Amino acid sequence: MRNAYENVDYYRDELNKEGVTPEDIETVDDITKLPFTTKEDFRDEYPDGLFAVDDDEIIRIHASSGTTGKPKIVSYTEDDLEVWSEVVARSLAAAGVEAGDTVQNAYGYGLFTGGLGLHYGVEELGATVIPIGGGNTQRQVEMLEDLESDAIACTPSYALYLAETAQEMGVDIKELPLRAVIFGAEPCTDPMREEIEERLDVTGIDIYGLSEIIGPGVSNECYEAQDGLHIWEDRFFPEVIDPETGEPLPVGEEGELVLTTLSKEALPVLRYRTGDLTSLTYETCECGRTMVRMDNVTGRADDLVIVRGVNFYPSEIEDVVLEFDEVAPYYRIDLDRVDNLDTLEVTIEREPEFDGSVDDLRDRVMTRLQNVLSFTPDTLTIAEPGGIERTKVGKVKRVYDHR
Ligand code: DLL
Question: Domain AMP-dependent synthetase/ligase: where (predicted)?
Fold first, then answer.
């Protein structure tokens, strides 16, 4: 808190408004005196208003989707990167990975925290990382075979797609040495986990994290119990609140996860409202670890959409739609899962006056969407005027998730 108060104007102003100074924080319970940080604060302070150190101390930048066209920019000092590698190494150890093992890292490398986050954690543990990144599925299967990977890190939906691809290639994936799939970046339901474990003959391990706090490695399941994710609470302090009222909930009740970083230098975050719904348990775990556990995250308090591990808010699509005079201010997003891969269909509507080429309009809107979303919708449909159903009563529904 001292780091945030003394080095981030935003926090100093907010805390002064509340009349709290670092001296007022004496026990853990005092944390409720602090205001929440929200994704809107990241938006308002874009790009670096929440940074607590000078540029020359920052040695890495990552980014993730924001509520408008602008992403949330996050930064790390050398010490932050060491902490990150350590919590990911711990997560991998909890997943049963050991020094000497080989881990195929199929998370995307780049601004997304998944690739480099997992990468350095594997090295920190003393295991071998195969930095293959996302996609290239046939290649992934060949690597699993030829390099005898012990674990693969990827999204849960990709794990299933991988199993299917292996089957098509005539490879019996169950016969490979692969022991664990370390899945995260998107929710995984129980039936989906069972299917992963069954089809690949592995232990499925859930890894959780978010860019604003550090990236992957905020919490992780242990392979011994597979019963909740241990939060590395020496680094990240968890609370669960009622998303409507903001009030702390009794232990065990489901609500919105709120996280405070305890040792981040470049980007200290106080009481961040993650939007992720979960509950906490302080009961002893059979693995012997004493750190608090959170339940698997299967829902969100807001409308964040996760497609193939990439996040976006519907408002980002809305922003694009509103940029085009030829397009009416209505849109619809349909999410589905085909052959275990997420698909995203965007439908927009042309204005009645528009009499140009629909193909050309589609190309232009598509290009804009690709730039804003950093991936390509599978289909962009341009409906006739009135083609998108209007909401006449109650909340407008834009996103239809058929998964
Ligand atoms: O997705 C970090 C990550 C990478 C975690 C690789 C695990 C593996 P962001 O792009 O900032 O960071 O997205 C964070 O993704 O608030 C959740 O809504 C969702 N999410 C992440 N892990 C899980 C999980 C990375 N295990 C947002 N289960 C979070 C469910 C998850 N949702």
Answer: 48-259
> How much is the pTM?
0.90
Structural Rg of the chain based on CA atoms: 22
> Whose C-alpha lies nearest to ligand 1, atom 9?
210
The alpha carbon of 300 and the centre of ligand 1 are apart by a number of angstroms equal to 11
Question: Does the pLDDT of residue 209 top 60, yes or no?
Answer: yes
Q: How far is the CA of 385 from the centre of ligand 1 (A)?
A: 38
Token pair of 209, please? 């994290």
| Domains (range + CATH), the chain | 75-300 (3.40.50.12780), 304-401 (3.30.300.30)
